[in-house]
Specification:
Elements lengths: L2 H37 L3 H10 L3 H12 L4 H11 L2 H10 L10 H6 L3 H8 L7 H25 L5 H6 L2 H17 L1 H20 L4 H19 L2 H7 L1
């Protein structure tokens, strides 16, 4: 089997693997676009948000922080903390990448998401650059497309529907939390504790809402690192 044929086959495999992710990405990205319109940022800003950040949950969170008047520095730090799990996912994938991928590493690292990591980690064969780039950048383009479509729809949808899209952020986090909470009671305890800590900090009004979120993430993460067993930590990752 020739090298060109194998490359085409890997590209095809990556494209097929991306289809279920695209089906899930476009509606969520449209919700983000609609919320972007409601938040008051421009179409170009919303477009660049998805082009440059490409991190679903963090983009929703950043929009929420923007609506609260949170400073840019706090938003960047909060996003970094929420996305720190990507360091672990990327490190895990490097053990399966082929050796000819050195110059493609930055592009593959940028395209790592929870969903693409899950698909790639279950692939038994080595991960070629053709498979990874096809998988990641088809989903990337679908996320950008969904964002633009959602923003445009946000200009014509009735106000009651646009306002209801605000629940998309909370729905996304709940959908991530519940499956993990079913696997481990400590995950549920950490989530509840995070809510209590954030509520307490908000009540005390020591810092702004943005810094309250940053402090909550740091404090609860440190506590979780010391109290959760190695097996349970791997589940959360």
């Amino acid at each position: 089997m020739g090298k060109d044929y194998r490359r085409r086959l890997n590209i095809k495999d990556g494209a097929f693997a991306a289809i279920p992710l695209v089906i899930g990405y476009i509606p969520v990205a449209m919700a983000f676009g609609i919320l972007s319109k409601n938040t008051g940022i421009s179409l170009m800003d919303s477009f660049l948000f998805s082009v440059l950040v490409f991190a679903g949950a963090s983009q929703f969170m950043a929009l929420n922080l923007l609506s609260l008047g949170t400073g840019i520095g706090q938003i960047i730090l909060t996003t970094l903390l929420v996305n720190s799990r990507h360091f672990l996912m990327s490190a895990s994938l490097t053990t399966k990448l082929t050796k000819d991928m050195k110059k493609w590493i930055p592009f593959i690292a940028f395209g790592v998401t929870d969903e693409s990591f899950s698909v790639a980690s279950f692939k038994e064969e080595e991960l070629t650059k053709e498979f990874m780039l096809s998988l990641q950048y088809i989903t990337y383009l679908s996320w950008i497309l969904g964002t633009v479509l959602g923003y445009i729809l946000g200009q014509v949808l009735p106000t009651i529907i646009k306002d209801s899209m605000g629940i998309a952020l909370y729905s996304m986090f709940i959908s991530i939390l519940i499956p993990e909470a079913k696997k481990s009671n400590k995950v549920l305890i950490m989530a509840v504790l995070a809510g209590i800590v954030n509520t307490l900090l908000s009540y005390l009004k020591i810092t702004t809402d943005g810094w309250n979120l940053v402090l909550t993430i740091i404090l609860v993460s440190i506590l979780g690192a010391f109290t959760m067993k190695e097996k349970e930590v791997s589940i959360c990752e």
